[in-house]
Every structure is written in C-alpha cells, then in structure tokens.
Amino acid sequence: MTVTVTAKKSGTLLPLDTFPPFGLSHLGRSLSPRQLRAYRNSRHAELLSSKRFHGDKTVSVPQRDFHKRHEGKLRVFFLDVNPLCYQGAQPSLPSFANWLSLFLCEVSLRNPVIAVLDGEDGNGYRRQLLPSYKAHRRKFIGHWQELPRSSIASVSSRELQITDVLHKCNVPVIKVNCFEADDVVASLTEQVLRRGHRVVIGSPDKDFKQLISEKVQMVMPMPELGRWSFYTLRHYIEQYNCDPSSDLSLRCIIGDEIDGVPGIQHVAPRFGRKTALKLLKKHGSLANLLGAAAVRTVGKQYVQDALTKHADYLWRNFEVLSLRRNAEVHLKEEWLLERDSCNDSTVLSSFMKC
C-alpha cells in the first residue's frame, strides 16, 4: 500500500442550486473559446490576489450565503485527480491547474480537501473479471506498469508535479496500490460519514453517483462554462426520476460503454433501458429483481429468459461497476482540520504558468 500524505487541516452544505458561474450568467453562452479563456484568466487573477489566499479570515471576494448555512457541520472534500488531467481526450497539466485553482478558490475554500490518485494496478481486480474494462483508456498518471517503458518517465514526472503542488497547498494525496481512486474515495467516504460529517466529491466521474445521499454530494467540472457545479440528491432524482440506490443496478443491466462494460442487450437485444427502468421501479434493486426472477415470472418471456439465463452476466457487471469499500486506508484526524491556504496564491499562480 502506498499512501502519500502532507496535510493540514473544514465544512458546510451548499444549496440545491448549482454553483454560481463566476459572473458568466450575464454574459450568456455565446462566448467564444478565446473569450471564455480570457474571462477565466482574469477571474483567476482576481481570486489569487484576494485576501482569501493570504491566510486572512476576511474574504475580499464577496462571500456566498451558502457557505454559512450549516456552520458547525463539517464537510470533507475529495478531489478525484486523474480525470481532471485531461482537456477533452488529450492529457493536459494546464487543465488540472485550472480546475484545481477554481476548486480551492471557489468551492472548498478552507474546508479539508483530500486528493486521491489511482493506485498501481488499480483496475487489475476488475480487469480479471472483465478484460474489456477501461481497456481503451490512455494513461496520463498512474498505472505505470501498463505503459510502454518510454512513457514511464514522463508519467512519473507529471505525477510528481501534481502531488508536489497539492502538498504545497496543504492537501493530502492518497494513493493505494491495487485500488482505483473511486474505491479509495468510497472507502474514506464511509469512514467520514461514520464520524457524523458530510462529504463532497469533486469529479466528473458518473460512478460516484451511486454514493449520492442527503450527506454526500458531488461537484462536477463544467468545461463549457469554466466552472464547477454542485450535483445533489435532488438533482439526481429530478434527472433520473429514481433513487441513487437504483443507479448501480440500472448500469449493471444496460452496461457502461465508456468503461467497456457490456449491457444485457448484447445477449438479449430486446432488453433495453425502458424495460430495465420499469423492472427496477417495481423491484428496487438488481438483487431483488434476480431473486424474484428465480422463483416466478417477472415480465415477458424474453425478459424472464434474459434474467434467468444471464444472471451470472449481470452479477459480474455488478462486481465490476460497484465501488469497493475495502481499500486499505484509514482516515486521519489531521485530514479533517481546516486547510491552511496561506501558500495558495504563490503555488497556484506558479503552477498555472506551467
């Protein structure tokens, strides 16, 4: 197990609307990419020069009401590093620098932040179950053993740059061998919740939606607007008209093409999303559905045949897509302390010029 830590040090719950777009709302969505970059850069300069990054409790950028709504209720922020290191499909350190600066400036503030990286052979467990799992993914950081030898040095250099800037911003960096970052976040989330705190997960990865609850929310990067947006239980229910507990079961049935997980339609072509949603609305979960199908008829003949003949197929998908909670990492008290942001201005300004 590898756990890299340099941490210091808090939390509140945001409202159910999305995060304010840094003044872009009055500009509309007609900005060209060049105009958006120029606006974003000027906003970064304003943020990095504010008192917020000089250890002063007074914030020169107007404080938003939602940071005061649940004072005393600690929120712990997790930052899923790997997917933020890309601009589109291309590896990009500047992209990570951009999202990190916005995250620390406008989202987490001085609340505790824990950054998480994929461990060595992180997806090995899932690859053994399903060789196609993330088989097409290119590597920017992590999974060195899967790279050509010529690429290892550059990947190592990028990872060192990223961990170095996070450490200088007093953010602990966690990396557990044989576990993906998603599994480490899921494991630590359970530990945070057991202590009575709340969790915010910073990531574009939809896999984390299975963790959403009243006390767990996501904050997702929105490249088209150059900002982070909060995603909560209410957002999920409004979007999918079901509870997040059904999300994993639905993906097990219909598959996940992005992660290379085939759905049941590959073996039962007539079995689609509408059928899956209807069945899950009635039975609640994949386990309940397969249990019912084993003892009685739960739908039309093609549905019944698919669920009884391909139950192992669906359980394999469940094993691949469900987040593991057994990563060998233990929450430390110092990770829950208020983050010292006194270095942010210097460190982030320098990093964004890379």
From TrEMBL:
Q: What is this protein's record name?
A: 5'-3' exonuclease domain-containing protein
SUPFAM superfamilies, per this entry?
A: 5' to 3' exonuclease, C-terminal subdomain, PIN domain-like
Superkingdom of the source?
A: Eukaryota
Q: Where is the signal peptide?
A: none
Protein transport is among the record's keywords: no
Extract the SMART domains matched here: 53EXOc
Which residue range or ranges hold the 5'-3' exonuclease domain?
72-339
Q: What Pfam families has UniProt attached to this entry?
A: 5_3_exonuc, 5_3_exonuc_N
Keywords annotated in UniProt: Hydrolase, Nuclease
MF terms in GO = hydrolase activity, acting on ester bonds; nuclease activity
